[in-house]
Design brief:
206 residues, alpha/beta, 6 strands, 34% helix
């Protein structure tokens, strides 16, 4: 089992914790991690883009000039794609970009992302994280103590003071153990996870 240090809010090491290899020590499957990220981004796409083809643009029912004898190239409609105001060739139409990933694939992708963060030493465990008031400056002080800037902060339970204090800091996102995903884990440089959140993640995914 991998061992990682446990820190307090002042940035001092206060102990160590053993991580479950079934969650934080799996063989990293890069293909599944990639698929999970593509899946999440694809599912967020609205897919509402639309343009008109030549059959949908109004006008152009009349042949602009006779077929032969004018010196012009032959033309059948002023709404053909080569004309100004004409239809679009292969125009984009509303569509659904989402696709499905199996449950086992999603779980393995998440475990792979967590394992990679531990292996890269970008996984910081806090013994606890709580603030007496909503104060961005106090939360920023915790990040400074840990020498972290771009971070995903994972909590076991909703903590309004922590969530609202972190909200105005660029490149910092808070998440609960049941809302973490592969995209966010990879997007942020460091994961800051409370000790009880680590236990909750291991309980769900082990």
């Amino acid at each position: 089992m991998a061992k990682v240090s446990v820190y307090n809010m002042e940035g001092n090491q206060v102990g160590e914790i053993e991580l479950n290899d079934a969650v934080f020590g799996v063989e990293v499957n890069e293909h599944l991690v990639h698929m999970a990220v593509v899946n999440q981004l694809a599912n967020k796409r609205q897919g509402t883009q639309s343009a008109k083809t030549r059959s949908e643009v109004s006008g152009g029912g009349k042949k602009p000039w006779r077929q032969k004898g004018t010196g012009h190239a032959r033309q059948g409609s002023i709404r053909a794609p080569q004309w100004k105001g004409g239809g679009v060739v292969f125009a984009p139409k509303p569509r659904d970009y989402s696709f499905k990933l199996n449950k086992k694939e999603k779980r393995l992708a998440l475990k792979s992302a967590l394992t990679s963060r531990v292996a890269e030493q970008k996984f910081i465990v806090l013994d606890e994280l709580h603030l007496d008031e909503i104060k961005t400056k106090k939360f920023q002080a915790v990040l400074n103590n840990l020498k972290v800037n771009k971070a995903l902060v994972v909590l076991k339970e909703k903590n309004e003071n922590v969530i609202l204090s972190a909200r105005n800091i660029p490149d910092v996102k808070t998440a609960l153990t049941n809302t973490i995903n592969v995209y966010d884990i990879l997007k942020y440089n460091t994961m800051i996870v409370t000790k009880d959140a680590v236990a909750a993640i291991e309980e769900v995914y082990a």
